[in-house]
Design brief:
- This protein is of the alpha+beta class.
- Helices cover 23% and strands 21% of the residues.
- It has helices at residues 4-18, 41-45, 145-152, 159-163, 174-184, 197-216; strands at residues 23-28, 50-56, 59-64, 68-73, 79-83, 94-100, 105-109, 116-121, 257-261, 264-268.
- The chain is elongated, with a radius of gyration of 20 Å.
Length: 274
């Protein structure tokens, strides 16, 4: 599933091409994605100018000139790719196609259809059922050691599961949780409530660093993920522990181990992470 760096990369790519442009035409090629598309979806979008594109957690937020927001989630396999012109032949998984007033085209492609789109008033966005329960943005100024320590205080769950809890801190998915814990020297099995003081400061800093490096690299390309320009990210080549079960740790040379936590694979170095 695309995580925060992948979604941020897509947002930045879309913004470069679409800010200030109008949606000349919208083609809805099926009635639903994960959920039914909003009523009068095409009519409500056609002719609208794009005022801003940003990210909240793993959601793409496209602000329109009529005070509405197009809320997009890529699901597990979704992509939004900008083409300089509309392809002569669309892919069968191109479920929504946006024709822009300068002739470019944006295709929302989602083979598994776990993605979603909704239209909501900008004034009501923070109260939307998918947004209102979300936690702190890890790249915000408010996210630091003391903030993380306060979130985790008293929690009995393993720290890796806690930092992946979207109600606490958003967007730190499975890959980046493993990578951040390695950099902070913290075992993913350690109880979340024990991450206080210096440990919390190290982990908060590691989360920020890993996410920023991944964004700079265009994200990690797994399975179907591509950037808005159709290119692959390359942060997977910089992984220090993720998907390296049995390979030597780049610090101590000992083997990287793989365990399962919350039905997800966790990778860590037993020697360097305590």
């Amino acid at each position: 599933m695309p995580e925060l760096p992948e979604v941020e990369t897509v947002c930045r790519g879309l913004a470069l091409k679409l800010l200030g442009r109008r949606l000349a035409a919208v083609e809805q090629r099926r009635p639903n994605l994960r959920f039914p598309l909003p009523p009068d979806f095409v009519a409500r979008l056609t002719g609208r100018r794009i005022e801003a594109i940003r990210r909240r957690a793993k959601y793409i937020i496209i602000e329109l000139d009529d005070g509405m927001v197009l809320l997009v989630h890529l699901g597990m396999s979704g992509s939004m790719v900008v083409n300089e012109r509309r392809p002569a032949l669309l892919d069968r998984h191109d479920h929504v196609v946006f024709d822009i007033d300068n002739g470019t085209c944006v295709r929302f492609n989602d083979a598994r259809r776990f993605g979603l789109m909704d239209l909501v008033s900008a004034a009501e966005l923070d109260h939307h059922k998918l947004i209102r329960g979300l936690g702190l943005e890890p790249l915000s100024r408010d996210f630091d050691g003391p903030a993380l320590a306060a979130m985790l205080k008293g929690r009995k769950t393993p720290v890796k599961l806690a930092i992946m809890d979207q109600r606490l801190v958003v967007g730190v998915g499975n890959i980046y949780a493993s990578e951040a814990l390695f950099r902070a020297g913290i075992s993913p099995k350690r109880l979340a409530g024990t991450i206080q003081g210096e440990r919390a400061a190290k982990l908060a800093a590691a989360i920020k660093t890993v996410l920023k490096e991944a964004i700079k690299a265009g994200g990690s390309s797994l399975r179907d993920y591509v950037q808005a320009n159709g290119e692959l990210g390359y942060f997977q080549h910089l992984w220090k522990v993720y998907d390296r079960d049995g390979e030597p740790c780049r610090i101590c040379g000992g083997p990287i181990r793989k365990i399962t936590q919350g039905a997800r694979s966790t990778f860590y170095c037993p020697k360097d992470q305590r």
